[in-house]
Amino acid sequence: MNMVTAVSWVRNLFHDCIVKSCDASLLLDSASGIISEKTSERSFGMRNFKYVNTIKAAVEAACPLTVSCADIVALSARDGLAILGGPSFEIKTGRKDSKQSYLADVKDSIPNHNDSMSLVLDRFQSIGIDVEGAVAILGAHSVGRVHCINLVHRLYPTVDPTLNPAYAEYLKGRCPTANPDPEAVLYARNDRETPMILDNYYYKNLLKNKGLLIIDQQLTSDPRTLPYVEKMAVDNGYFHQQLSRALILLSENNPLIADQGEIRKDCRYVNK
After folding, report:
1. Contact assessment for residue 74 and residue 23, using Cβ atoms and an 8 Å cutoff
2. In the list 16, 85, 87, 188, which could disulfide-bond 244, CB 3.0-4.6 Å?
3. CA dihedral for 152, 153, 159, 165, sign (positive or negative)
């Protein structure tokens, strides 16, 4: 497994757990009246689901109907963080899998890259994650990449004045047109120093006006979040501590238990 897959696993946890419940509803394909959450515009760029299916197949062969897809999402995200140089921590198991998709709820549940900080903080607060935890979770943007379609509005026709000029030139080199092909693999990284290590360079860069997305840079302009950015920028251990705390809370959002859900045989489909 490579580092890109680890990034995908971490993103899976966020996209699954912030929508209704940590219940693997994200993994359902469109079938039998279900329309997949993967079809939402908020799921743009998500990939590597095949590896979760590979893990599930191996687990089913060893111990059928014992480990839920929801637990696999949570456990793989935890291990993905460690692979990326992030914190290591224990995580609870025992979640059940949803029998339905929540496509209609995805757009209002998952913040967009250009939403206001108030909206983003309110969304985290609604599932029990405070401002400090929200700032830490956004630090996961330290790894991975962003498609140009999500950032060219900060570059064209004029450069966003909150962008560091030298960084803006780098971004224009990565995204040379105001109208990129949405599917083109043109992308930029938030953290150029350690792009595949989950560390506090993300916050160091924000303080230099090198935030890739609007939501990233807003962390420094909002008085509620700036103190945490400043503290995380100088203390990687503190960042990891708060990230662990916040992701544990995220992973425990409204889990299905007993007969509220099921343990799917195949993560892509409800049991027949």
Report:
1. no
2. 87
3. negative
pLDDT tens-digit readout, 38-77:
999 998 878 889 999 999 999 999 999 999 999 999 999 9
pTM: 0.94
Torsion from C-alpha of 34, 253, 104, 117, nearest 10 degrees: -150
CA 105 to each of CA 40, 62, 110, 236, 254: distance values in angstroms, whole numbers, following the listed order: 10, 35, 9, 34, 15
CA–CA separation, 201 vs 207, rounded Å? 10
Q: What is the pLDDT of residues 150-178, one digit of tens each?
A: 889 999 999 999 999 999 999 999 999 99
Question: Is 160 labelled a binding residue?
Answer: no
Round to whole Å and give the CA distance between 246 and 39: 27
- Cβ atoms of 228 and 179 within 8 Å: the answer is no
66 assigned binding-site residue? no
Question: CA–CA distance from 192 to each of 129, 141, 152, 167 (Å)?
Answer: 28, 12, 18, 10
182 labeled part of a ligand binding site: no
- Whether residue 259 is annotated as binding a ligand: the answer is no
240 is a catalytic site residue: no
SS3 201: helix
d(CA 172, CA 151): 10
Q: Which of 15, 113, 147, 240 is catalytic?
A: 15
